[in-house]
Amino acid sequence: MEELKGIERTPQIIAAEIIAIKNQTRKILLASAIEVGRRLVEAKALMPHGEWLRWLEKSVGYSNRTAANLMRIYEVYGQKQEGLSNSQPVANLSYSQALILLGLPDAERERFIQEVDIENMSKRQLEKAVQERLETLEQDNQAKTEEEKLKKAIQEQEQKMAKLVQERDQLKRKMDALNRSQAEAEERAVRLSLQLKSLEQDTNAQALARMSRNLHAAYHRAKANKIAFLYEQIERDLKDFFREIKDFQTKEPETYQIYWEKMTKLLTDGLTGKV
Length: 275
Prior knowledge:
single chain
């Protein structure tokens, strides 16, 4: 840089010039890394399977790790290359800073670049700041996870409570229906008991009447049987009497007459109910 004639040189002016040169060097270095990464991505896409590592070492002298970092630099910052002059926070990054920032998620990286004075940080300070931001993100994620778990647990608990309330209401309806059924069954049992008692009474009365009729009929059958027996006996006796007395009619007329009159009187009294 040519010194402007007529302007007094001061340490402040020299410091400003140095900073400008450093920033310009940063832009050039990061832009160069992005362009190298772009071409590495292009070459890898054209490379036959199994030839990539050999090509890196033999053709460009890069290790697989270095190539991966450069391609990652392109993938993350390449879209911003054309606007480096307009995207000041990204434009001021050095290659090493850009590489360290790859450890952050994309959305968080943008915020980090906007919020943190990266330009005035050492490499170690930047690594520490990135690590602290990652730890904060992890804590936030854990807190969100715990919150989501808690919300899910509350939701599941509410669902269980709702289910229990529903089951309780169903059980209550079943119990009410069971109680009504039991009351109806008890009422029906009382009615049946009364009907049974009445039926038993009717049945007992009918049984007694039937028994009375049966006893009466049996009595008359017994009487009839006795009369039949007596009649048969009298018939036999009368036949025997008439057969025996017939001999007396001629042999002993007086005896015949006596017993004939007695028999006649007995039969007459029997027929007239005097016996």
